[in-house]
Design goal:
Blueprint lengths: L1 H12 L1 H37 L3 E5 L5 H12 L4 E7 L1 H11 L4 H6 L8 E6 L5 H9 L4 E6 L1 H43 L1 H9 L4 H42 L9 H30 L2
Antiparallel strand pairs: 1-3, 1-4, 2-3
Helix pairs in contact: 1-9, 2-7, 2-9, 7-9, 7-10, 9-10
Length: 288
């Protein structure tokens, strides 16, 4: 109990240094929270697009149902394909009517014979869409393959780039946080050198002297993590209505509170590790 009281006295007597340590930790965990939201959000968006028909192949009019069934069977046997949906001429007409029900002129111009039958394919992995598309193009029964290759590739590239950038930013901020906290705690130890010498003369053990400084580092880490997580979560909740309108049918928001709780628990554990490590470095350097 006395150790915690000593820790609090260290913090209370140097509020500006404590504030600087808390702020740098807050920035670290704010970045960690934001990039975690981006990581999981982008993963869910890719999963959404992977679950939707990404390649559509239109059949030639001379293709028989037997030809179509054979191609569908081949696709279903491909482990890169997760789902195959056949759309007949009649179903294509019904879809067309639903999409253009407000324009009678367009409805009168189109008949079942004009619209081609098609097959919609979803891939197990977004990177498998291109080879699936090439397989369909080589079929003699397919007249056209619609595949938004550039859009899919760009989405995947942006996601990977954001992950790499996020990892580098979080790593750099973590290193800066550890360095600044170690410097602040080391400075405090230097200021209390005479007091520490007196404690040692009174038979205080090394760990009795060290623990208040280690708990001080943990305190900075935990408070910074709480602030960073709170700001990021509040910002996400505030932006949820705008993001939902932007994302459309992608079932990404609102975020499950359980997920936010798990994120907070994980960040608190990381904060304890960073705080302990930073203060331990300072203690080992200045309390020999």
């Amino acid at each position: 109990m006395k150790t915690f009281k000593t820790t609090w006295n260290h913090i209370r007597r140097s509020p500006y240094q404590a504030l600087a340590a808390i702020l740098i930790m807050m920035l670290t965990f704010l970045a960690l929270s934001i990039f975690t939201f981006v990581f999981f959000g982008s993963s869910e968006i890719i999963k959404y697009f992977e679950s939707k028909p990404q390649v559509t192949a239109f059949f030639k009019d001379e293709a028989t149902q037997q030809n179509i069934d054979g191609l569908i069977a081949t696709l279903e046997g491909n482990d890169k394909v997760s789902d195959v949906n056949f759309v007949s001429k009649n179903e294509a007409l019904q879809i067309y009517k639903e999409q253009n029900k407000g324009d009678p002129l367009l409805l009168d111009l189109v008949t079942e014979e004009i619209l081609p039958a098609s097959v919609e394919i979803s891939a197990t992995n977004i990177d498998d869409l291109s080879p699936i598309s090439e397989t369909l193009k080589s079929s003699p029964f397919v007249s056209e393959v619609v595949f938004q290759q550039d859009v899919v590739k760009t989405l995947s590239q942006w996601t990977n780039a954001l992950r790499r950038i996020g990892f580098v930013v979080i790593l750099l901020l973590s290193l800066v946080s550890v360095f600044i906290m170690a410097t602040i705690i080391g400075f405090k130890i230097s200021q209390k050198r005479e007091e520490i010498e007196i404690m040692r003369l009174l038979s205080a053990t090394k760990w009795y002297v060290r623990w208040p400084f280690i708990f001080e580092g943990i305190f900075y880490g935990v408070v910074g993590a709480l602030l960073g997580w709170t700001i990021a979560s509040a910002g996400l909740l505030y932006a949820t209505p705008y993001l939902k309108s932007f994302l459309g049918n992608i079932p990404l928001l609102p975020v499950n509170p359980v997920y936010l709780g798990i994120l907070l628990a994980g960040e608190l554990m990381i904060a304890v590790v960073l705080g302990t490590y930073a203060s331990f470095i300072a203690v080992l350097r200045y309390l020999k």
